Amino acid sequence: MGNSSTISSKGQVTVPIEVRRRLGVKEGDRVEFVFVEGTAVLRPVRSGESPFTKWIGAFGGFESAQDAVEWVRGLRDEDER
User: Fold this and answer.
1) How many Cα atoms within 13 Å fall on the side-chain side of residue 40?
2) Terminal CA-to-CA distance of the chain, rounded, Å?
3) CA Rg, the chain, in Å?
4) For residues 27 and 3, what is the distance between their CA atoms, to the nearest angstrom?
């Protein structure tokens, strides 16, 4: 039966370990059930804010992505010296 589970009398299911691993969820995480083209899909509930938001501007303001790339290349060049 692969990654299947049985619904309990309380409407609960156990999510198989392989499914939890692939979804990146652990005990206490929230999941939601959504319907996509007539199929029920289980997916993790993620907060709307990126964990990287707090780092915006930490390394100076870059005018473009190319500026950031050049900055990183400069750092790498310094490491090679």
Assistant:
1) 4
2) 58
3) 22
4) 18
